[in-house]
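Notes for week 9. Today we move from apo structures to complexes. The key idea is that a small molecule is not decoration. When we ask for a structure prediction with zinc ion present, the ligand SMILES becomes part of the input, just like the chain. The input block below holds both the sequence and the ligand string. Read it once before you look at the output, and try to guess where the molecule might sit.
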Amino acid sequence: MQCPSCQNTDSRVLESRAADAGRSVRRRRECLNCDFRFTTYERVETVPITVIKRNGNRETFSRSKLLNGITRACEKTITEGNKVQIIVDELETQLHQSNIREIQSLEIGEMVLERLKGINEVAYIRFASVYRNFHGINDFVATLESFKTDKSQFATIG
Ligand SMILES: [Zn+2]
């Protein structure tokens, strides 16, 4: 790591500690040439994931956006105990471990619903209605109808 003061590339580490909730390591270093002290951060390299939205737009997966979305949908239902954080952590880890480069926003929504199912019914239904863009009872009915169609299609194939 190059010294910001004299550009020498040899330094010794004085101190290492976890930062950013364990996602990076902060190191305090001292230049072996001029004794200048500086700080470096080391983090795991992750491949950016592209999210394809319903309208066909593409954007880079954003952890904070997903966190905000779930928090808004689940307000006053599962805000206690950092459960939303845990859901987002698990989901992000799963995405990076699966090594995919692209995912439909709807798929992410279904992954969230999968997790909400076991945690809180109200949060589940609320997130489903926001995520699937329900505008009224007809949308619920339409979704149920399409579930039935999906099932019968699978039955035909299987
Ligand atoms: Zn130096």
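The pocket of zinc ion is lined by residues 3, 5-6, 8, 31, 33-34, 36 (CB under 6 Å).
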